[in-house]
Amino acid sequence: MLTDLPNILTLLRIASIPVLVVLLSVHSPTANVIACAVYTAACITDYLDGALARRWHQLSELGRMMDPIADKLLVGSLLLALAGLTHLPVFSLYAGIIIMVREILVSGLREYMASQRETLPSTRLAKWKTGIQMVAIGFLIGGDGAAGMLGLSFLPATLIGGILLWFSVIPTVISGWGYLTAGLARIMAGQSRKSSKISF
User: Which of 10, 26, 106, 156 is deepest in the core (most CB within 10 A)?
Assistant: First the structure.
């Protein structure tokens, strides 16, 4: 149900997106530190919603659908905001484009497979991809200004975030290719079954 705590946590992750975009638009180290705190809380809900759903036996199709959507909305919205505010260093704008293209393609594939009554379960590599992306975005949200406020001025937070974003492209592309090949194989197998029934 929508009122189950795991689903509420997922909705809170989605609700954090406009708050984070507004804080990033302020262009101040203080706002960036607050944004980091909000973003960290949003990332924690990504772990908690699944863990609580499994522990309390509140697994549902609604939660299974909403969880990856919330992740994609959070990552995609923040990448767009960071790009618009020119907070993406070391040409990591292109890493963001690769990530967004992959997410749109996989989402479209999932949508088509759902219409064919087929599923495309998430993989461990895809979860690692999301984890690396979230860490990278955390560094980019805080930036060097937030690092300085926290007494970590020696830490090139923005550069680290850009490098991590590029690093996340590796599992992003590999897992995306895996989804594509698995999805096409399932679609072809489903069409073969339908053809066999018709010919019979």
Answer: 10
